[in-house]
Amino acid sequence: MVSKDLIDNVLDFAETNGFNHIFAQVRGRGDAYYNSSFVPKSHLVDADFDPLEYLITSNKSSSIKIHAWINIYYLWSSKTLPKQKKHLLLKNPEWLDRSNKDKYIKTAQYLSDKNSMKIDGEGFYLAPTNSSVKDYLLNVISELSEKYLLDGIHYDYIRFHNTKYGFNETGLTEYRALNKINAINYGEDDSVIFSEFKRSSITRFVKEAKELIKQNLPNSIISAAVKPNIYDAKLLFFQEWDLWLSAGYLDWAVPMNYVVDNDKFVQNMYMVKDNIPSQYHKKIIVGISTYNQSARIVGKKIKRLRNMRFNNISIFSYNVFVDNPYYWKKLKKYF
Fold first, then answer.
1. Which residues pair with 41 in a beta bridge?
2. pTM of the shown model
3. Quick count: other Cβ atoms within 10 Å of Cβ 92?
4. Is the dihedral of CA 96, 97, 103, 106 positive or negative?
């Protein structure tokens, strides 16, 4: 999504090989691969180029649908600060999520460590429990769905960093007020009530975002990349995607079943099959990874999915086919 030639190549590849949907990442680490009035553009993109607009207008095939893939809460992963002065990491440090004992983020110490920041796990996340974060992200959704004629919007990283997180100051204040808690730390950490508060904060965003998108793009497909184990998703990442599907907040769920081990891969799918009502199975698009396994192993998994009546799949990702053209030639026969 950084040049016309590369985007042309994607469209040509999709059309030539029978792909009918493209998830194009237009929000990576708090930046935009499109023209926004308030989100800073990626430093990889020329100021006068709108990659998303070019992708949409260059798509001449009626059989290919364009989805704007956006990272929701994931904000930054580099050990150096963003180049854009309006980046949220610099502009709104109070919006960052943190663990209970994390003073590094709480005191915005990373701002003074700009050339070698301390990275915990995947990096910096926005706080789902902070209502200002929710409002900002809804503005992102609103601008995208008003400005671009999209076939879909795809959420990624729509979850907490891990179980240790959820201690954003504003979020804690809202939690304590909601539950009439006066003592600091009372009812937090591993509390069932606190966990439910974290889950509901993401679900509230998903619900409100759906209403916005459908108002602007009634026929668009709303999807989310989700953890494939529905219990881990709910308990470890506070992502209750089975509810999102059944409540109609999502049109598709895309479980990222990126494990190499075939038994674990199949186990994840049986867990979905046994716990998600059958009427929603057609709304499940199974994510299969190509970056960590051979074309032959991926092909076998596709066959197994077909036998289980999971007929919709998403391949992650196109980059592998660019780096190794022979990979797709081997994989193609399984379709």
1. 32
2. 0.96
3. 17
4. positive
Average pLDDT over the chain, rounded to an integer: 95
235: amino acid identity, one letter = L
Those residues with Cβ within 8 angstroms of residue 84's Cβ, 6 or more apart along the chain or in another chain: 31, 40, 41, 43, 90
State which residues form the domain around 125.
4-256
pLDDT tens for 222-270 read 999 999 999 999 999 999 999 999 999 999 999 999 999 999 999 999 9
* Token pair recorded at residue 160: 């907490």
Query: Hey, which residues does 18 pair with through a beta bridge?
Result: none
Give domain status of residue 208, yes or no.
Answer: yes
Q: Give the separation between CA 324 and CA 294, rounded to whole angstroms.
A: 11
Cα gap 223→283, rounded to integer Å: 9
| Structure tokens belonging to residue 296 | 């032959």
Distance CA 161, CA 72 (A): 12
Residue 332 covered by a domain: no
329 domain-assigned: no
pLDDT, tens digit, 9 for 90 and up, residues 72-105: 999 999 999 999 999 999 999 999 999 998 999 9
Question: Is 227 inside a domain boundary?
Answer: yes
Integer Cα distance of 309 and 269 in angstroms:
11
List the one residue out of 2, 26, 283 whose CA is nearest residue 153: 26
Q: What is the CATH number of the domain that holds 19?
A: 3.20.20.80
- How many domains are contained in the chain? 1
Least confident interval from 49-63, 136-150, 185-199: 185-199
Tens of pLDDT, residues 270-299: 999 999 999 999 999 999 999 999 999 999
> 235: helix, coil or strand?
helix
| DSSP result, 144-171 | HHHHS--SEEEEES-S-S-TTB---HHH
